[in-house]
Amino acid sequence: MITFYSLLHERHAPEYEFYRGERVACFESSLRVEYVHQELIARGHGICTPSSDSREVLTQIHTGRYLNFLETAWSRWLAVDPANASSQPFPSVWPVRTLRSDLEPDNFIAQLGFYSMDNGTPMVEGTWAAAKAGADCAASAAHLVLSGERSAFCATRPPGHHAGADFMGGYCFLNNAAVAAQTFINSGVSRVAILDVDYHHGNGTQSIFYDRSDVLFISIHGDPRTEYPFYLGHSDEIGQAAGEGFNLNIPLSAGTSSDIWFEALEQACSRITHHRAEALVVSLGLDTFVNDPISRFALSTPDFSKLGARLERIGLPTVFILEGGYATRELGINAVNVLDAFDTA
Ligand SMILES: [Zn+2]
Prior knowledge:
alpha/beta, Arginase, Chain A, histone deacetylase activity
C-alpha cells in the first residue's frame, strides 16, 4: 500500500506533557512514526512525500481564525517573552459554562484556552509545519485513491481526530481524517464514511461532521464515562439537523475483550455498507493494543491483521490515517499488520 509520509513530522518534538500533575516525557513522540516507517520499508511498502496542498480543504473544516492562531502561535508565544523559546505554551484558563466563548480574546495566553479542549496538547516551534504536512498527506492520499488506487496510508503525526473546527486537544491540531473525507466530497464523492477505531472517541471528527449527511461518522472507543475525552462519545449522539442518523458511537467499557471489540466492528461495518458509502476513511489508532500504556482494550498483534482483512471486505476505496498508539515499539508491526492484511485479503 502506498504510504504518504513527511519528515517534517520530526519538527513537532515537544519535550514534556503533564500527567497526573507531573511533567513527564511525551507519549506522542517522533519515535512512533519512525517505527511505523521502518516497518513499512522492511515489508516493501512504497513511500511518497505529500503531493497535495491541503490549505483550501483546511479552511472548509477548520475556522480561519483557528488556523491563523495555530500558524502564528509560536511567534506570538515568543512575543509574550523571548525567554519562552525554551519552554512550551500550555493553556490555563478555558471558557467553560457561564464564560463567554463567542469573543476571541486578544491575550495570547487566553487564546490558548479559547482554542483548546485540554492541556494535553503541547506545542513547539515546528508544530504547525508538522501538522500541515500531515494534512497534506491526508489530502494526497485521498487524491491518489480518487485516481483509482484502492487504498493509501498516511504515516503521520501529530494525530488529528481530537481536533475540532476551532480547537486543539489530545495531541491533535489539524483533523487529518476530516481533510481526507472533505477531499473526497470536493471531488464529487457523495457519501463518505469515517470509521474511527482509536481507543479514544474521535470527538473532533464527530463535531466537524455532526450536522452533515454526506459524511457518516462511526467510532468504537472506550466509554467516555471513564475514558478520555470524557465529554463526548456517548451512544445517544446520533447527529443533528441534516446529520441526524449519520453519527454512530459504540462505546465499550475499559477492559473489553477483543471478541466483544470485533462484534462492535461488525456492527460498524454493517452500518457503512447500509449507508452505501462510496469511500472510507479509517482513523487508525493502534492504542486498542493490549500493551498500550494509556489505554485499556485488549487487541493482540494478530488481531490487527484480522481488522485489516475485515476492513477490506467492506469493499471500498480506503484511506488509512494514523492516529494514536503509544506502545511505541509494537506500533509499526501493529499498523502494518492492518495494511498488509487489507492488501492481501
Ligand atoms: Zn487514542
